[in-house]
Design the sequence.
């Protein structure tokens, strides 16, 4: 599902930017349309990132939870973590993964959303200025 979801999400940012340009009053200037598209894409990416962070622990539980991830980690690595006093269940838990989504994926998503939204607004304003 992720292989289909990401391209559709990226296409959605372009479409959201185009919609923002569509709702502008005519004589659409490309610069303003790109700005409106970037803002719309940024908002959409923020919502998407928060929803993704909320759904990450749920999807982890549905796919086998922490045990499924830990079964893929070499035993030597797990022993090293335990010897260092680190609980592997905490590192690979749903809360940690949701935090990683917020720290790593959200900023990238915001940049992509703003950029692709601006592109969508720019293209629409250039194609239909009236």
Sequence:
């Amino acid at each position: 599902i992720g292989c289909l979801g990401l391209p559709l999400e990226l296409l959605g940012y372009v479409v959201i930017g185009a919609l923002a340009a569509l709702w502008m009053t005519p004589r659409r200037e490309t610069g303003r349309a790109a700005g409106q598209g970037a803002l719309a894409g940024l908002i959409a990416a923020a919502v998407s990132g928060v929803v993704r962070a909320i759904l990450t622990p749920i999807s982890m539980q549905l796919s086998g939870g922490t045990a499924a991830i830990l079964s893929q980690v070499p035993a030597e690595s797990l022993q090293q973590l335990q010897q260092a006093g680190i609980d592997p269940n905490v590192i690979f838990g749903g809360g940690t993964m949701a935090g990683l989504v917020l720290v790593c994926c959200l900023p990238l998503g915001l940049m992509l959303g703003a950029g692709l939204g601006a592109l969508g607004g720019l293209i629409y304003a250039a194609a239909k200025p009236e």
